[in-house]
Design a protein that fits this description.
The complex is a heterodimer of chains A (353) and B (103). Chain A is an alpha/beta fold. Chain A is built from twelve helices and nine strands. Chain A has a single domain, classed as Alpha-Beta Barrel (TIM Barrel), CATH 3.20.20. Helix content of chain A is 44%, strand content 12%. Chain B is mainly alpha-helical. Chain B contains seven helices and no strands. The relative contact order of chain B is 0.14. The chains are: A alpha/beta (353), B mainly alpha (103). At the A-B interface, α4, α6 and α12 of A face α1, α2, α6 and α7 of B.
Chain lengths: 353, 103
């Protein structure tokens, strides 16, 4: 075989020689190993990934009997929402969309979520959200999550009341930025807890805290404390999905259970999420658009494998647009999405996606 | 993209036993092999059978725990979940809510 057709991290096709594919697989894994101080992939795992990329088939899949569980962030937005949620703009209600995912697509679980998928905008219309959740709970069989992003960024000016660390830090106002984070995370945590309680009232099966730590260590701490409350006070199953592979240190000194949150990699994030009491952890590994999909996927699987090797709770790796090896493009191509999907389970040992 | 994942890696929800395995992950924090083993034992099947839609179609009808095709008279929604809760020996919040409403 003289060349292998695959993709770059931006979604465009690229032809690579077998030697280039092998080299990228090794380089991607070694990059993850160096950053996370974790093991690289094994020889047979490289062989599996190479065979997968070298195969000319349009799609790939797990071996029979190795199928895993799907949970989905963003709820059913992909059907009725617009480009902002990679949605296709179908004229469906959320209940119709949920039932479509259950019966037409055969999903194992599904979410209800607000169009504007953050906790802050969903709060004022909570009764509408509860009504929609109640509707699907009555009519559907698969587990029902309610999902939202804690999204601490919405609590800072101009969207919220607190001074914005992104404005303060470039001016060298570090104590002021830290104080703003400490105040804002309390408000965010209380909103997450309040919203979770409202969904527990109506009997939801699970709550999904999505893109956790998108605004750094302050948001991670707020979410972990909310997980503690939910685990102690409700019967709601808790999924924590991350936003990025490394927790950004906008504050830099926040700790949870004595460990500094800033700079944590997925296997370290897992420990915090387990301690807080979550049921499912969703690690993220970000895609580098200038690198090939073999590089990105080998890197992502290396990080996830380190998570699953030590996890005491199910791990549902994020394999969406721009994460988990999948190209960062509005329409992720099925040829590489199916490969990333299968590799996360067969090599990464994920319990789901 | 959702469909790509569903075809490549998913158990298939109520086509098979995907919802049941998911509930064990959610309720008891079971990793995938343990969750599959638990459900297989409760259903009297092998782990391999759980992902086989041909086998599970009949099993789900026999146990009346909800099927993917629309067959009148078979358990739907809360009916199916009440039976699933008993089958798997777990609590399902919406089923518990129904019991509270009826008590």
């Amino acid at each position: 075989m003289s060349s292998i057709l695959t993709r770059m991290g931006d979604g465009y096709s690229v032809e690579m020689t077998p030697e280039e594919v092998r080299a990228d697989l090794i380089a991607g894994s070694e990059d993850a190993a160096r950053r996370g101080k974790i093991p690289t992939l094994e020889r047979d795992e490289y062989d599996y990934l190479y065979e997968m990329f070298a195969s000319p088939t349009r799609i790939w899949g797990v071996e029979r009997a190795h199928e895993a569980i799907l949970t989905k962030d963003g709820s059913t937005n992909s059907l009725y929402s617009a480009q902002l949620s990679s949605g296709v703009g179908l004229p469906l209600s959320r209940e119709q969309a949920f039932r479509t995912f259950e019966r037409a697509f055969g999903f194992d679980t599904m979410e209800v979520g607000h169009f504007d998928y953050s906790v802050k905008p969903a709060k004022p219309i909570v009764v509408l959200e509860q009504t929609n959740v109640e509707g699907v709970l009555h009519n559907c069989i698969i587990p029902v999550y309610y999902g939202f992003m804690p999204n601490l960024g919405l609590y800072y000016r101009p969207d919220g009341p607190y001074p914005n660390p992104s404005d303060l830090l470039p001016r060298g106002q570090i104590p002021e930025a830290r104080a703003a984070t400490e105040e804002a995370l309390v408000a965010c945590r209380e909103d997450v807890i309040w919203m979770t309680g409202k969904m527990a009232e109506v009997g939801v099966d699970g709550i999904n805290y999505d893109t956790t730590a998108s605004t750094g260590d302050g948001e991670f701490l707020a979410t972990l404390e909310a997980v503690e409350w939910t685990a102690a006070n409700t019967d709601v199953s808790i999924e924590v999905g991350m936003a990025a592979e490394c927790v950004l240190g906008f504050h830099g000194q926040l700790t949870y259970d004595g460990e500094r949150l800033a700079g944590m990699w997925p296997h370290q994030q897992l420990r915090m999420v387990e301690k807080a009491g979550a049921h499912i952890f969703g690690p993220v590994v970000n895609t580098n658009t200038r690198r090939s999909t073999p590089w990105n996927l080998a890197r992502a699987v290396t990080f996830v494998k380190a998570v699953t090797a030590m996890a005491r709770i199910p791990v549902h790796a994020n394999v969406g647009m721009g994460v988990g090896g999948v190209p960062m493009f509005e329409l992720p191509p099925a040829d590489v999405v199916t490969r990333c999907s299968a590799a996360m389970i067969m090599i990464g040992k994920a319990d789901g996606l | 993209m959702s469909m790509a994942h569903a075809l490549a890696s998913s158990m298939g929800g109520i086509r098979t036993a995907g919802d049941l395995v998911a509930r064990m992950q959610m309720a008891r924090k079971m990793r995938l092999p343990e969750a599959k083993q638990y459900v297989a034992q409760k259903l009297g099947l092998s782990v391999t059978d759980l992902s086989d839609s041909t086998i599970m179609r009949g099993v789900r009808e026999e146990l009346d725990i909800g099927m993917i095709t629309a067959v009148p008279g078979t358990a739907r929604g809360l009916e199916a979940k009440a039976r699933i809760a008993d089958l798997l020996d777990i609590k399902i919040n919406s089923v518990e809510r129904l019991k509270r409403k009826m008590s």
